[in-house]
Amino acid sequence: MRKLVYYVAVSLDGYIAGPGGEFDFYPLADDMSAWIDAHYPEPMPTPIRPLTGMPVDTPNKNWDTVLMGRGTYEAGGITSPYAHLKQYVVSSSFDPSNDPAVEVVAGDPVTLVRELKQADGLDIWLCGGGNLAAQLADEIDELIIKSYPVVAGSGIPAFAGAFTPTLFTPARRMEFSNNAQVTWYSRA
Fold first, then answer.
1. Model confidence, pTM
2. CATH number of the domain at 4-187, please?
3. Which part of the chain is the Bacterial bifunctional deaminase-reductase C-terminal domain (predicted)?
């Protein structure tokens, strides 16, 4: 069965983006970027790949499907940001995309995820945002948290929902020259 993996950047105070959807405040490092590109190429948007030296047709290694909330989808300003993945935007208030490569789902995201988990393929990447992550908290099988040494102060939390403590077990951790860490967590 496929896993739902929430792979996301987070500030020390738990925000995935600023109040206006900003995500450019994370300190970057060449060693971290190179490692991510080599091991997790999927999050690199398709139109940006040539600008970074990544071939557009770089094979998917981990995921072949991406789930996004409306805010996450709109933040990129591209109608098909991840053309190399099957793309779903979960929103009850969003007009369907004009791009046939993006499927807008107005219904229950839990039902969608349970159906996707039963299909063949690589795992499913939960890209964001915080509201969608909170709705899918019980379906998340793995967290991959890129924790950056920055305090945002306010913004969009990693999980924007009800108080529902859920235990995950750290599996491994890496640190990079910018003092950011990537930590893998499995559902306990």
1. 0.95
2. 3.40.430.10
3. 3-161
